[in-house]
Design brief:
By secondary structure, the chain is α/β, with parallel strands linked by helices. Helix content is 40%, strand content 21%. Strands 4, 5, 6, 7 and 8 form a 5-stranded parallel sheet that branches. A 3-stranded antiparallel sheet has the order 1-2-3, with no helix packed on it. It is globular, with a radius of gyration of 16 Å. The chain starts with a strand and ends with a helix.
Length: 179
């Protein structure tokens, strides 16, 4: 197996004399009210060496009738290798948001790392995610470290030094708890 990294940040794998596109994006879905949290998570990944082009932030509307680009969301879903829904009460109350999370659940080619905000308990997603997926909290250092390790492993990138990783995680958790 031969890997070639193009400047456009797309991975291709040589297989049976053809180039086949490989997934490379982190898809972070959130309700538009939680944009600051999604941005903090994206900045954390970037501070850990993940290129900004690898991260797709998708602020999803509630049922307020805003125009969304379905084609762009579908393209990003197809190119993601890690899907991270940020589950808040507003996210769970939105039919569109829960539909995107449903697409995450049925995507067998991407890793699903659901994040729950403080107002969400595991029982609130019972039957939807709880039984099948570990739920992560962004104020728990072990959860933040696990999320990064899973993302890093899926993207096959070189991890930062322990000092950089520790400082980045502490800064992220501090900024998250202040938000």
């Amino acid at each position: 197996q031969k890997r070639i990294l193009y400047y456009t940040v797309e991975f291709y794998v040589w297989k049976d004399s053809y180039f086949m596109e490989q997934r490379f994006k982190i898809f972070i879905a959130y309700h538009t009210n939680e944009e600051n949290i999604a941005t903090l998570l994206s900045e954390y990944f970037q501070s850990m060496g993940i290129p900004k082009d690898f991260i797709y932030l998708c602020g999803l509307p509630s049922n307020d009738g805003k125009v969304i680009n379905i084609d762009e969301i579908n393209a990003m879903l197809k190119s993601s290798c890690v899907n991270i829904p940020i589950l808040s009460q507003k996210f769970l109350d939105s039919a569109f948001c829960t539909n995107v999370t449903g697409a995450f659940v049925f995507d067998e080619n991407a890793l699903l790392l659901p994040v729950i905000l403080p107002e969400i308990t595991p029982n609130m997603v019972s039957g939807f995610l709880k039984e099948f997926y570990r739920l992560f909290k962004l104020d728990v250092s072990e959860d933040v470290a696990y999320i990064y390790d899973a993302v890093q492993g899926s993207l096959d990138i070189i991890p930062p030094s322990l000092t950089v990783a520790t400082n980045a995680m502490n800064a992220f958790i501090n900024n998250y708890t202040l938000s």
